[in-house]
Amino acid sequence: MQVSSAQLSQSDRTRRIAALRGDTALPPDGSIVLPVNARADLERVLVVLDDLLAYAGKGRFELLLMVNNYPPEQPPDAIAAYTAMGLQVVAQPAIRKAGEGVAITARALGTRAITSPVAIHIDADIRVPHPTPLLDWYVEQIAGGAKAAYTHVGYYDLAPHLAVRFRLLMHVASRWVKRVLLRKPTLRGSAYAIDRDTFLAFYDEGTMADERSIGPTIQARMGRVAYSGARRHTVLTSGRYWQSSWGSALRYVPITLRNNLRQLRVRRPPTGP
Questions:
Q1: What CATH number corresponds to the domain at position 204?
Q2: Has residue 177 been placed in a domain?
Q3: 38-94, pLDDT tens digit by residue?
Q4: pTM for the complete prediction?
Q5: What range defines the domain where residue 251 resides?
Q6: Which of 13, 114, 179, 190 is the most exposed place for a label (fewest CB within 10 A)?
């Protein structure tokens, strides 16, 4: 699948954002947090935003952009434009912290500002082909007692090269081994839902400094992590950075193995003063 351009006009987005949120006197059923790298994703995020605004269910969802990585003295004009559409925007020029993945930092900053107990994290370069069943499923799983929920992740914008296909095969195989044979959640940053309070509690105690540790950490604390492989719940992430070379594909194997082994080790909370 190749990514398409955003389709809706600003007036259409404004109208659909209000419709998605519904009655503001009532709390949202879920809060969608989208981290936005201002140097790369200010325009790209409109594509997944349009996907989400095609939601046609009965739920109420708030949308929040966590805009980061821009010069403090020159905030992007898009911040004001997105706010005018009715989106919530949390903006911070620099968010990097030593020893912490920038993605998890961005999600934590966004999560602190939401009002629903269901935090739905979706990356700016994701495509959501079927937003209605996906968002409804997320809410149902967290409301039903799961601490986190995730689905199958496919790819779009992949180069038509055998090396890229080999890398994809290795990626899919490693995730299957972890999820099915080792019974370890393979929840990743592309798209997932998580109980807001659980997310912030683990983040604040320092046990979730990297997104690879989210699933195993929750599992280790006896929390349930739900998974769906249904096609209508599938999300697609961009493969635009995957290089069409065998050298890159072969280097991916040991890197993936090392990262997967690190993921299986759960960081424990600090003890004592």
A1: 3.90.550.10
A2: yes
A3: 999 999 999 999 999 999 999 999 999 999 999 999 999 999 999 999 999 999 999
A4: 0.83
A5: 10-263
A6: 179
